[in-house]
Every structure is written in structure tokens, then in C-alpha cells.
Amino acid sequence: MRVTLTPKKDFKVPVEAETIKPDNFAGKNKSEIESIALWHGNKEVKLGSLFDVKVEGVNKEETKIVIEGDASRIKRIGEGMTSGEIMINGNVDMHCGAMMSGGKIIVKGDSDAWAGREMIGGELVVEGNAGNYLGAGYWGAEKGMGGGMIRVHGDAGDYVGGHMGDGEIIVKGSAGLLPGLDMSGGKITIEGNTTLPGGEMKNGMMVIKGKVLEMLPSFRFEGEEIVDSLKLKKFTGDLVRRGSGTLYVNLIPGE
Amino acid sequence: MELLIKNGVVYDPINEIRGEKMDICVKEDKIVSKVKNPKVIDANGKLVMPGGVDIHSHIAGGKINAGRLLRPEDGRKGAEPRGKLTRVCTGYSVPNTYATGYRYAKMGYTFVMEPATPPLLARHTHEELIDTPILDNAILALLDNNWMTMEYVKSGETKKLAAYVAWMIKAVKAYGVKIVNPGGDEAWGWGKNVNIDDSVPNFDVTPRDIIDGLAEANEMLNLPHSIHIHCNDLGHPGNYETTLKSFDVVKGRSNANRQVMHATHVQFHSYGGSGWKDFESKVDEIAKYVNAKKHVTIDMGQVMLGDTTTMTADGPLEYGLHMITGRKWTNLDVELETGGGITPFLYSSKVAVNTIQWAIGLELALLIKDPWKIALTTDHPNGAPFITYPIVISLLMNKQKRGEVMANVHKAINKRAILPSIGRELDWNDIAIMTRAAPARILGLDRYGKGHLGVGADADVAIYDVSPEERESKKIQSALLHAKYTIKGGEVVVRDGEIVAVPEGRTYWVNPEFDGESTKDMLGDLTGKFEKYYSVNLANYPVQDAYVPHPVEIKTKV
Predict the structure, then answer these.
(1) Residue A39: beta bridge partners?
(2) Mean of the pLDDT values across residues B193-207?
(3) Residue B161: its pLDDT value, please?
(4) Which chain B residue's Cα is nearest to A143?
(5) B74 with A140: Cβ contact below 8 A
(6) Which residues of B touch A139 (CB under 8 A)?
(7) Are strands A104-107 and B498-499 parallel, antiparallel or unpaired?
(8) Angle, nearest 10°, between helix axes B516-532 and B147-155?
């Protein structure tokens, strides 16, 4: 089945939409979906009062949710989803795909902060740019992304993959400060530039195919290796944590 | 307002009522012998007990708030939206103040002792207690790593020490004296720790001297509670010997009404072995001592397997834990007075040491024959959050349930703990003693209407929807976690496990009277300390009345 949600207006006050996920929609008819509760600011409202709902097909095994229009004030879409697919034809607010364990989310525009936060499975694709804390842990959390796959076609903000334990993040563009902070496993690939990668990393792998604008001094140079048909410099660290993470870098500052 | 609690099965150990079917009458905020035109609460077939009294639970103050700041991820656990009466709740091991009040009340508790307040930060503690709904409360002031205390102990000026203790307790609106790793925090300022007979750097006193000096001052002042001590060497293999030595320090003292030392979270102090590899339970030795002596009481400090936050004024211990786990950590230093540390900790069923710790707490409760000598605690949140009390109780009451847990934990428990060989099951009378009567008596609060249901007592009553014969752990747990009714000060605050009223709690504090000459001399010394070292003025130090809006002042005479 395919459920299309079209916002009735541009939201100024954010909508908390952790109930918008295929697990919650599967097998429901139009009026059942319209009566799903979500929070708009400090008021609990029915989904039907915020969105026009269109339902096609009945096969609940293949539930796909399509959000047409601007979702840049809709938070937590697909939070904790385990299966199915969500397509957002526009920008999306924070926490999209947080804690998801299966299924797929495609964001055609940009995602705000915390996309794929603490996810443990499934796939998240952001075709525009991603905000800060992509695939990271929320404030205070000791574990970030623990599995699954995140692809960003544009750039990502600061703290990509903070506290990451497993899974993979690929950023086609550049990333901001401190990607892979405190990571203990998994793989982060940044095809563009970034700054201070791998701070306090204990394990896992990072590949920076562009330039590292600023490099932490606590990584040990191990020599050069061919990775993805590129000749890259291999470092081990972060030595301040006695870490054994691997950091591949193309260009270091000064080059 | 009058209430008649009809036909309940009443457990009121202080008045020697042991599961009798009877009525309890309430008028205004007191228990009375009869009522004229009451609202009737049908308690037929239900357990009726005095409101719970927690003798040791870190619920408010600088350390707890630092724990909340350190662990925002813990705030996400147990988050509940506001209700019609209730405010937003957050947290599991470091709940916010509202969650603390509501959750305790739902478990039938009506009094909680915040047991470790640095005097300089007492305003903060009182402010948080104001925001902790329903519960009556009190605080213990940390006075052991204090420079004034150590100097008076060193010089042997016990009268001045007593004058200082009296002044401090009054100044910060505290209830009694707390001792945490005596001398250890001061040593920690120099990167060191001390054991009971080591000399504290720069003060030339030993922890033994500090314990003895404060015990003498405590008895001189005739305070309602004895010294309340977290012994040296907490959490280390082989520390049971230090614990027994600490108990022995005050064995020559006595008090007609109560013990002269309350040793807290003794689970953390009952370890044998020479290292983590041969770490074992020495509860047999501790229980032998406590069973034979009258001068010491203890509380459990039960560990439950799972994630929690450890926080104590024992700074060096917390640093040690952080170095073992590699998890985040923070540290406090409180000028001339004390310090502390905080780090999250996971007690894992796959780790031999943690499993044995879990067994040790239960062993203490089961091997100490007289339940009046041991109060039920988890040293919240150090061993486990307080909301695990119903699980602890169900384990104490059901041997089979303990066996089920033991079958699924590290096998070391069979060799290095005593629990597998213990068949004792506690009954409801034992539980009523350990959770209300004994803590009230140990604190000296039974004389002020807490922990019992006799005529004139405070109308704090818990009613649980469980039959006295029930032994099935799931049923016990759910009944204790969601009381059928909790009555606090004559008002029904919990009905069917939900909060129905949110009165403000009262704060018990002690105003000790002491000889004016010694107080004058002491204030001379204290003024010097403030001028030379403190970041505040002496005149600004005492907590103003406004910070204790519902005080219960207890005056003591020498």
C-alpha cells in the first residue's frame, strides 16, 4: 500500500511525528490513518487535521509513505521504524529516521540535525544536505549509530557519526567539524573535505577522500595504502584514548 | 477531614501488630482511636502499613543535579508527560524531583532521608526538596572531611567539636551527621586515599579518630540519630576488615534509645578476597558481628543487575570506577568541607564481581537475624534506582525466585557468594520492619510520629492490594510498585497506583542546644576559617528559613 500525506499548511510550530512510520500505517484505511495521534506544539492532534491523506492499495507487506510538500517543520518522521519505506519529497526537520532498525527512508531535500540518530539498521538516504549530528548519539548518549546505512549526496554538518559503534555512513560532499567523535566501530566515508576527523576514536574506520583542513596531532602515521583505487595515507588513533581506529586521509593540511 | 481504613490486614511492628485485621482511624493529619463521620476506605484483604521510610537515598542536591547534567540520556528513560496534577517526569537512575516524589509516593513511601549534603551546598538541596512533592524529608550534613572537624579531633577539643556540629546542623537545617570515607576526600585533594588507620595528609589525624570524635560529639548533643557512616575502603576486595574495625571504633558507647552508629550501604563494605579475581562475599563475618552487638545498625545498599548512576562524596572511589569502565565521570570539590564524584555504571549479570555484589546485599538482609538492625535500601542510585525496591522485596520473600535469578547469572555466585545456601524467606512483618519501622527507629523519628500507626502518629499510611499469603513475585512487585492507596498527612495522595493529590512535604531538622561558652570559642575559630579560606561570608552561610517552608523543628538538649 502507498499512503500519500500532504501538509494542509506550512507549519510554524513543529510537529512531532514519531507516529508517521510504515509500522504504524500498515493495513490501516484512510480514516484509521487520519485518526492517528501526533503532537503539534503542546497539543495532541489527529493526523487528519494536519495532512490530506490518500491511500492506494492494500498490501500491508509493502507499505510506503510519501510526504509531498514541505516537511521542514516535521520532526521524528520514521523514528524507530522497522520496515517499509518513507519518501519525503522535500526538506525534513530533526530526528528523521532516529533509532530506526529496518526499512528505508529517502529524503529528496535536506535533512536537519540528528538524521539517523542512534539507528541500528535499515537505510537512510538524504539527497540534499544533512545537518549536524548525522547518525550520532543524542546529547549524553554513549552510543550513536549501531548499524544500517546512511548516504548523503550533498554535504553534512558537524559531528557526523558521533559515538558510532557499527554501520556505515557515506557523505558524498564535505562534512563539518569532528566527524567520528568517540567512534568505536563501523565505517565513515567522506568524499569531500572535513576538519579534525576521528577525535577520541577507539576503533572503526574513516576514509577522507578530500582534504583534512585540520588534523589532530594524536594519530600515528602508518604509511600509504590503496583504498577505493585512491592512494591514501593511513593513520592509527586516537592515541589519547589508546585507540586502534584507522583513519585514511588523502590530503593533510599544508598539501 | 476524617478517614476510616476498614478491615485491612495491618502490619505495624512498632506497636507489635503483626497482620491483624483491624481498622485505622485518621483525623486531620494524625492517627486517632476513633472517628465520628469518616470517609471509609475499604481495605478488606489488603495490606495496611505505615508509610515507607527510606533511611538513605540520594534524591536532592548538588551531586544529584550534577548527575542529571552528566547523564541527559538517563533523562530520556522514564519520561512521562505532565498530567492534570503531575508535572513532567524524566529519568530512571537520576529522576527529576517530581518523578522522585511521585514514584516514592506510588510505592507507599512518605519519608525519605537525603543522606549526603555538603553544608555549603545545603541551600541547593533544600531548593530541590521544595520541588520534590509529597515526601517528608530531612538531610544529613557531611561533616567528616571538614577542616574544622579534623582540627578539633586532632587537638582533642571535643566540646568545641560538639559546638561546631551543633552550629552546622542548625545553620544548614540538617537532621544529623553524615560521615563519608572519613579523611578520604581531603586526601583525594592530594590524589590519595586513606584507610582507617592512615594519617590524613596535613591534618595528622586518622579516620578512626574522626569517627570516634564525631560519635562523641553526636552523643554529647543527644541528637535523635546516631552518626551515619559510609566506611573507608568502599568497594574494594577485602574491605570487610576495615568495616568491622570501623564498627569497633564506637563499641564502648551506648544510647538508651538507639544504636550509636548507623553504617550505610554495607553491601559495598562486605567484600573478601585479595583482588578482583578472588573477590568474594564476607557477609558471614559482618552478620556475625551485627548479630552479636547492639551498638551498630546497617542498611543494605542492594545492587540490582542493570545500568545505574553511581554518585558519592567518596571522590577517589568514583575516579577508580571511571578508570575501570572508561565511562564518563565528573568530580566535585566543596572548599573546606567535602567533595564527590559521579560516573555511570552497569552491573552486569555476566560479570562475576557484579553478580556477587547482587548476592551480598540479599545475604545481609537474610543472615542478619534481627530485621530491626537492617533497613532496606539500594543506596539510590548507587546500587540501583529506588523504584527497584519491590523487586528486592520479592527476592527476599521468595527463595525460588532467587534461585531463578541465580541460574542465569555468572557461575562465580555458586563458589564465592553465600546466597545459594540460604533458605530463609522474609515475611511481611520483616518487610514492614525493614522498610518503615526500623528506619524510623534508627533515625529516631518514631518518637516524632513516623514509621508506625499508633494513636498520635502521623497519618502516613500505605495500603497494598496484595494478600498477606501472596508469595508470587510478579504480584508482590506490581502491588508494591503501585499502592492501592497512599495516605500522607491524612490526605489520600495515591489511589489505584495514580497520584491524586500533591501536597508539599515537610522538612525535619534538629536544633541542638549546646553550652554557650564552647560555642563562643568555636565561633572565634570558625570566623578565622571563613576570613582566610571560604568563598562566602560567615553571615551569609546559614540557610535562611525561606528555604525550608514547611519545617518540623526538633529541639534537643544536652
Answers:
(1) A16, A44
(2) 95
(3) 97
(4) B73
(5) yes
(6) 72-73
(7) unpaired
(8) 130
Domains located in chain B, CATH noted:
2-50+452-499 (2.30.40.10), 52-448 (3.20.20)
- Chain B residues inside the 8 Å CB shell of A140: 70-75
Alpha-carbon distance B457 to B436, whole Å? 13
Does any domain span residue A194? yes
Nearest Cα of chain B lies from the Cα of A240 at a distance, in angstroms, of 13
Instruction: Tell me how close the Cα of A47 comes to any Cα of chain B, in angstroms.
Output: 20
If one compares B52 and B191, the residue with the highest pLDDT of the two is B52
Q: What is the pTM of this model?
A: 0.93
Helix (H, G, I), strand (E, B) or coil at B536: coil
- Measured CA to CA, the distance from residue B187 to residue B183 in angstroms comes to 6
Given this model, what pLDDT does residue A213 score? Answer: 96
**Span B518-531, mean pLDDT?**
95
Q: What is the pLDDT of residue B189?
A: 87
Beta strands in B321-460, from DSSP E residues, in sequence order: 330-334, 338-347, 374-375
Confidence label for A229 from pLDDT (cuts 50, 70 and 90): very high
Number of domains in chain A: 1
Give phi and psi for B455, each to the nearest 5: -60, 130
**Structural domain range at position A206:** 110-251
* Chain A CB contacts of B72 below 8 Å: 138-140
How many Cβ pairs closer than 8 A exist between chain A and B?
17
Q: Chain B residue with minimal CA distance to A44?
A: B81
- Encode A86-137 in three state secondary structure: EEEECCECCCCCCCCCCCEEEECCCECCCCCCCCCCCEEEECCCECCCCCCC
* In a domain? residue A47: no
Q: Where are the alpha helices (DSSP H) in B444-515?
A: 473-481
Question: Is the separation of the CB atoms in A67 and A49 below 8 Å?
Answer: no
In angstroms, the CA A249 to CA A230 distance is 10
DSSP per residue, B253-283: ---SSS-SEEE--GGGG-EESSSSTT-EE-H
* Residues B342 and B262: beta-carbon distance below 8 Å: no
Question: A138: which chain B residues are within 8 Å (Cβ-Cβ)?
Answer: 72-73, 76
**Whether residue B344 has a cis bond before it, omega within 30° of 0:** no
Grid cell of A91 as nine digits: 526538506
pLDDT tens digits along B115-130: 999 999 999 999 999 9
Q: Which of B73, B77, B342 to mutate to test the interface with A (most CBs of A within 10 A)?
A: B73
Q: Measure Cα distances from B237 to B151, B177, B271, B413 in Å.
A: 31, 27, 5, 15
Chain B residues close to A141, C-beta within 8 Å:
73
Nearest chain B residue to A241 by CA distance is B326
